[in-house]
Amino acid sequence: MKIERLLGITIYLLNHKRVTTQTLASRFEVSTRTVIRDINTLSLAGIPIVTIYGSEGGYEILDAFKLERQLANKKDYSYIITALQGLQSAFDSRELNDTLEKMQVISPDCNMEMILDFGAVNENRSINEKLMLLQQTVNRRKKVIFSYTNAVNEYKEHEVEPVATMYKWYSWYLLCYYPKYDDYRIFKLVRMEAIVITEQNNSKVHNIGEAKRKWEQSEQKQNSIQVKLLCKSIIKAKCEEYLNGMIIEEFPNGDFIYEFHVPENEHFWYGTILAFSHHIKVLEPTSLIERIKLSCKKILEQYEEV
């Protein structure tokens, strides 16, 4: 319905600062012409939407505008509580528990239709301790120093400005600003050691959404490869579960060609390919084929010495 779309556009603008016509059209699955009409309707209704022209232009709502009415219904609260319960299963926090209890009091009759259980994430006590420490650092807006072993086994000390903790790719990460390179980066918590909160304030206030967007843009520029596999039918489900790609050709016997893009030095996908053993054959790139040959040679040598 149009009224729901108008409300949705208003909330989206409040949450995303400046947004282009194309982004709104894609988000609400309408034409750009419809978006323009909706923006005009909202402006006539008194919502202070301004239009910014130029290459970085778009629509935004003046900072002084606030929505005062209660917008959440039972369905909204059920999603909120489900998300909080999922986070609670992954992260021990008194503040999080208090927040969950408040939401349950506000909407005691919510019927949860989903269960999010990330209990396996919470099994590593040292990770939880690092999370607690880094959350303090984020809240205090202090720089942090730590030692880190990267994907190619280089051990270095880093000084960064924490922005947020982030769960991604089955692991916890720290999203942070790296003053030395004027860039946003992520570090995997399990590889961080000797974390020390300094008394130095961050050089600036960091917006989490903006920091994540800039990191994603930077990540796209990093070395990545396109992998093409010839796979046996028996591992079809596992490919779809563990490798975020797509089947580009399937044969009458059920075998298929699978393609995906990954960071070149990331360990998880490479270990997965080795675990698939003789059920897959790498077709591209040549550099990966040579890498697997070398790994297999070293493994054989290891056992031949026994």
Run of helices and strands:
HHHEEHHHEEEEEHEHEEHEH
User: What would you call the shape?
Assistant: globular
What structural class do you assign from the helix and strand content? alpha+beta
State the separation between the terminal residues, measured CA to CA: 71 Å
Please describe the biggest sheet, giving its number of strands, its sense, and whether it closes into a barrel.
5 strands, antiparallel
Walk me through the structure.
It is a single chain. By secondary structure, the protein is an alpha+beta fold. It folds into four domains: 2-61, Orthogonal Bundle (Arc Repressor Mutant, subunit A), CATH 1.10.10; 74-122, no CATH class; 125-221, SH3 type barrels, CATH 2.30.30; 224-304, Alpha-Beta Plaits, CATH 3.30.70. It has ten helices and eleven strands. It has helices spanning 2-16, 21-28, 32-44, 74-90, 94-106, 125-140, 208-221, 236-242, 267-275, 286-304, and strands at residues 49-52, 58-61, 142-149, 155-168, 171-178, 183-188, 192-201, 224-231, 246-250, 256-263, 280-284. A hairpin with a 5-residue loop joins strand 9 and strand 10 (256-263). Helix 2 (21-28) packs across helix 3 (32-44).
